[in-house]
Amino acid sequence: MLIDFRFKALDPIRNNVNWILRPLEYVMMAPRNAFEATSEYFTTRGTLDQENQAMKVRQAELSLLANQSEFLMVENQNLRELMALQKQVPFKTLPVEILFNPPNPISQRIVINRGSDDGLKLGNPIANDAGILGQVVRLYERSAEVSLLEDRDFAVPVQVARNGLRAAVFGAGRGNPLELRYLPVASDLEVGDILLTSGIDGVYPPGFAVAVISKIERNADKNSSNVFCVPVAAVNRYRQALAFLYDPKFDAKAPTINNKSASGEPLGNNPGRRQTRARGMQ
Amino acid sequence: MIDFQSGYILRPVNPVFIYFSLFCALLLNLLPIGNYGWVPDWLIICIVFWNIHQHRYVSVISAFILGLMMDVHNSDLLGLHAFSYSLVAYLAISWHRRIVALTVLSQALHLLPIFLLVSLFPVLVHWVLSGEFYWWALTGAIQAVIEALLWPIATRILLAPQRRPIDVDHNRPL
Questions:
Q1: Which of A32, A167, A218, A220 has the fewest Cβ atoms within 10 angstroms?
Q2: Which pLDDT band, with edges at 50, 70 and 90, does A86 fall under?
Q3: Cα–Cα distance, A239 to A113 (Å, whole number)
Q4: What is the pLDDT, as a whole number, of residue A277?
């Protein structure tokens, strides 16, 4: 019986049971939500004022940054065009809400409230404000299950932010730190290095924080080093996250209004559509 | 049915109450408490209880269906809970004559292995299928102990409707 289920033959059954079960789960989430809502409702005016101030400052900073980044992005795209590099693929984001994490001794997953009806696809990455959380591994119509970074053998291609060294981060099972595998002793790594997604695999968009190196054990005999890292994004901090609808393979973008007017080229000649180089050769 | 604790004959059980209690246990299991090893599995307490006391109403098949629901909720391998629940239901049915004759505390002690089987079953299956053993996942044993400790309370609550007196004297309620 158990072996049978490894081949995904019974997904329809799962879908149907899920269809019955999900409303009940929503009902049972009501007490927790009500509790949180009341505790939020009774926060004092002073705290709210403080929060408001902080938010305003933050917003001002962010909008400044956003203006700047738009300028940088245009400049970057132009430079890439000049150097005939592949254009970076823009992607859409979808705000999702984390519903709960199912009790499961083996794996660490979360269930989110968006599914295939909202345009989510299998394999879409999920991130929050700090960094990558995980990846959609099972899709229902109105919800999805997300496997977190620390799931066993969950791999993310990364590069070290400081020097651009490429590597892959692997999950080592629930409760264990992440591992950087297949690295020689002499690789230039330090504790505290931030690992960003490199975008090689075409699943994760490049440049998002994944983990921070916490411990390095160099083993000169075997010419290997055990590098342990801690994920950047904390799962239990917020209920909100973002799903990246990122698909560079099929989604060679039709020009948006911006880059069309900027380049002024006809459709077929747009560099964004050109896929001559292998993906990831940036 | 005779209540071996008090020696009285119990009232006949109401099937609606059985299904209602199973449904409530299922809802309790769906509470978003978080992914902790010690959270008791209310549903298995309920299933084992009714399998021991009223196995004509709650059988292996209903245990299987409820287990399937828990599989989907827990995003486990489909059939994991379904199998362990029905196995345990079978064990409970085959032990029921022996267990109802014991006192409640020794019942709880007898049922501890059953609860241990349920809580460690996913770890064992994972071990068999992938060859890796999660030692820290053995904290599920705590869950089994908590479930065994909850057993007297469950007995009290779930048998309460059957322990009502038959002839109620409204003038002298006690």
A1: A220
A2: low
A3: 11
A4: 43
Closest Cα in chain A to B41: A103
Alpha-helical (H) ranges within A104-256 are none
CA distance A53 to A63: 15
Q: Show the domains of chain A with their CATH numbers.
A: 84-282 (2.40.10.340)
The answer to whether B125 faces chain A, any CB pair under 8 Å, is yes
**Residue B150, pLDDT score:** 92
Burial class of residue B75, CB neighbours in 10 A (0-12, 13-18, 19+): buried
Please answer whether residues B78 and A10 qualify as being in contact, where contact means their C-beta atoms are separated by less than 8 angstroms: yes
User: Predicted confidence band at B91 (pLDDT cuts at 50, 70, 90)?
Assistant: very high
Rounded Cα–Cα distance for residues B122 and A7 (Å): 18
With a cut of 80, say whether residue B66 has pLDDT above it. yes
Cross-chain CB nearest to A28 (options B30, B35, B139): B30
Compute the average pLDDT of residues A19-31: 79
- Model confidence at A6, in pLDDT bands (50, 70, 90)? low
What does pLDDT average to over chain B? 85
Q: What per-residue confidence (pLDDT) applies to A114? A: 86
CB contact under 8 A, B75 and A32: no
The confidence score (pLDDT) of residue A253 equals: 44
How far is B147 from B150, CA to CA, in rounded Å?
5
Which of A218, A95, B103 minimizes the C-alpha distance to B111?
B103
Q: Does the distance separating the beta carbons of B68 and A25 come in below 8 Å?
A: no
- Mean pLDDT calculated for residue range A205-219: 84
Tell me the domains of chain B and their CATH numbers: 15-161 (1.10.1760)
- The distance of A182 to chain B (nearest Cα, Å) reads 21
Pick among B29, B33, B72 to test the A interface (most A CBs inside 10 A): B72
Q: Which residues contact A278 (CB under 8 A, 6 or more apart)?
A: none
Map tokens 């489909």 to a residue.
B78
Residues of A at the B interface (Cβ-Cβ below 8 Å)? 1-2, 4-6, 10, 13-14, 17-18, 20-21, 24-25, 27-29, 31-32, 99-109, 111, 138, 145, 152, 173-175, 236
The one-letter amino acid code at A102 reads: P
* pLDDT per position as a tens digit, A141-174: 888 888 888 877 788 888 888 888 888 888 887 7
Instruction: Tell me the C-alpha to C-alpha distance, in Å, between residue A224 and each of A196, A198, A217, A219.
Output: 22, 22, 9, 5
